[in-house]
Design goal:
This protein has twelve helices and 23 strands. By secondary structure, it is an alpha+beta fold. Helix 6 packs across helix 9. The longest helix has 21 residues. The structure holds adenosine monophosphate and glycine (GLY).
Length: about 425
């Protein structure tokens, strides 16, 4: 098979690494890719959001399957364009990607099937939003309706903080993404991420993970795209998983099909779990980054069979073969992230790191300049390891961190603290 993956981050490096292990994979192209990806696959300078360009490239290269990593091309309708041109694609249509691109849409889907989620209201008028906030207890959560690169959520401890979040969002801080807001009650409990494959009808659980969103040790400082993750998430017991499938995932997937916009691809179910009861915090319509790095490390080459079955509507009867193992990924970011950071610093020692089924240095934001690897992004590397226990995976992942020579980068030292 000739496979094209769209994206350039650690998630796409991990997807490429796992897919490449499957003997069915002949040619593997990642567009646009990064320096780490270029070590194991071909890369191509495509804009993943440019449907005409991607479709022409897929035709010229006899691509059999297209795998979409990030949300932006999904929301822009890349899957619709590729499917119309006859390609098998892993990812949702633009209509189904609304589960990520509109928080109000997701809330309406939950309402329609009575899925547990925080009580909320949806506003297009700032004065009405402010009046609502003044009547509600704090903390309260203010969310820009649209895509805001993970920055569109404010957990406000005070009414004043909520009022200024409304002013910021509805005043254009995130452009049109904040023109509408969802305001919801604060949920208590422990967060977890649950990933399911879906071919429109059949739902197949792929795995669980826990992310660390804050930049600093002890979950302090500003939110980031994710500073590390581990899989599985201990809070996702069999009972919590079954409750999530029965009360949230299957009803929402059925509601999407009923509306004529079936969901296909991977659904990222962000949950808050309190006393064993799951509530939906958000859906994303793609794999998490860095959660994907842990999942791929554990799944290996079988992921291609699963993705292909999903893209071809054959999930019924498929099985995920899980080993009794654990994975952890530690993100190394450029000093200053998630604020302003320096670009172009040199990372030394990468070539000496072990690369095998227990260790992988996935690249998130790198480029190669002659024989040097340079940091180009905020999140730069995802150092990932697997083990029989989480403690072993933790030890191996931090051994990778400690073997690197990159003074311009940093990481959290406490990934996995809750489970360890
Ligand atoms: P979201 O982008 O909707 O996942 O929100 C980002 C983060 O904000 C989540 O991972 C939670 O940590 C937090 N969050 C969002 N909604 C709520 C809520 N209703 N209650 C508590 N925390 C929330
Ligand atoms: N790590 C969270 C996300 O991918 O949205």
């Amino acid at each position: 098979m000739n496979i094209l993956i769209l994206g350039s981050g650690g998630r796409e490096h991990a997807l490429a690494w796992a897919i490449k292990q499957n003997p069915k994979c002949d040619r593997l192209i990642v567009a646009p890719g990064n320096a780490g990806i270029a070590d194991l696959a071909e890369t191509a300078a495509l804009d993943p959001c440019d449907g005409a360009q991607v479709t022409a490239f897929a035709a010229d290269n006899a691509i059999d399957l297209v795998v979409i990593g990030p949300e932006a091309p999904l929301v822009a309708g890349i899957v619709d364009e590729l499917r119309a041109a006859g390609f098998a694609v892993f990812g949702p249509s633009a209509a189904a990607a609304r589960l990520e691109s509109s928080k109000a849409f997701t809330k309406a889907i939950c309402d329609a099937c009575d899925a547990p989620t925080a009580a909320y209201a949806h506003f297009t008028d700032p004065q009405a939003a402010k009046a609502y906030v003044r009547d509600r207890p704090t903390p309260i959560v203010v969310k820009a309706d649209g895509l805001a690169a993970g920055k569109g959520v404010v957990v406000a401890e005070t009414t004043d903080a909520a009022l200024s979040a409304i002013d910021d969002m509805m005043g254009g801080q995130f452009g049109t993404a904040g023109a509408e807001v969802v305001i919801e009650d604060f949920l208590r409990g422990e967060e977890a991420s649950f990933f399911v494959l879906c071919d429109g009808e059949t739902v197949l659980p792929l795995g669980t993970a826990q992310d660390h969103k804050r930049v600093g040790d002890g979950d302090t400082g500003p939110n980031t795209g994710g500073m590390g993750a581990y899989s599985p998430a201990p809070v996702m017991t069999d009972a919590v998983t079954e409750a999530t499938l029965a009360r949230i995932v299957r009803p929402c997937v059925a509601e999407m099909a009923r509306r004529g916009t079936p969901f296909t691809g991977v659904l990222f179910v962000g949950l808050m779990i309190e006393d064993g009861a799951p509530s939906l915090v958000e859906f994303n319509v793609r794999l998490g980054d860095p959660e994907c790095q842990c999942l791929m490390m554990r799944l290996g080459g079988q992921v291609l069979d699963l993705i292909q079955a999903c893209a071809e509507g054959r999930l019924d009867g498929q099985q995920v073969h899980w080993a009794d193992d654990h994975a952890m990924t530690v993100v190394m970011a450029a000093n200053g992230y998630p604020g302003a950071y320096e670009k172009g610093t040199q990372i030394k020692g990468l070539e000496d790191l072990p690369e095998d089924s227990f260790h992988m240095a996935f690249h998130a934001g790198t480029t190669r300049s002659e024989e040097h690897v340079l940091a180009t992004g905020g999140r730069v590397l995802a150092l990932t390891a697997r083990g029989d226990t989480l403690a072993r995976a933790h030890e191996r992942a931090y051994a990778l961190v400690d073997a690197l020579d990159w003074p311009e980068g940093f990481c959290r030292r406490d990934i996995g603290w809750r489970a360890l």
